[in-house]
Amino acid sequence: NNSVMLNNCVGNQKVGYDIIMDVRKLSELDKRWPQLKYDYQTGIDEQYLWKKEFLKHGSCGIKLYPQPAYFDLAMNLKDKFDLLSTLRNHGITPGSTYLLHDIEKAIKTVSIKVPSLKCIEKYPGDV
């Protein structure tokens, strides 16, 4: 949505999060949107990341996209705009250094606008 930032929505009714129980949906979500801060079972049981992202972003469009539709849409968008493949197709691979402009240019080939990216310095010893 070009007119509204779908982030930390204000003024919406209080939106909750329903733990996802469908085993197939959990498998699909974990494959496309893994919860890397947690071991597999904790991620599936507690769903910290998915809950946080749904409450932060999904609550903005709750009338059009209730929780199940939000996650279906997120997975469909992930499949449609495979960022890693796009970067790889433009010669950008993990483990090397690239200019921010080159990364933005690659992403713009599959998006309408230049993405909002920021660089985070990785300090020696950080994992």
Automatic annotation (TrEMBL):
Stored Gene3D superfamilies: Ribonuclease T2-like
Assigned keywords, A-Z: Endonuclease, Hydrolase, Lyase, Nuclease
DNA-binding as UniProt keyword: no
A single Gene Ontology CC term: extracellular region
Source species, domain of life: Eukaryota
A single MF term (Gene Ontology): ribonuclease T2 activity
Annotated Pfam families: Ribonuclease_T2 (PF00445)
InterPro entries linked to this entry: RNase_T2-like (IPR001568), RNase_T2-like_sf (IPR036430)
GO BP, sorted A to Z: RNA catabolic process
Family from the record: Belongs to the RNase T2 family.
Protein name: Self-incompatibility ribonuclease
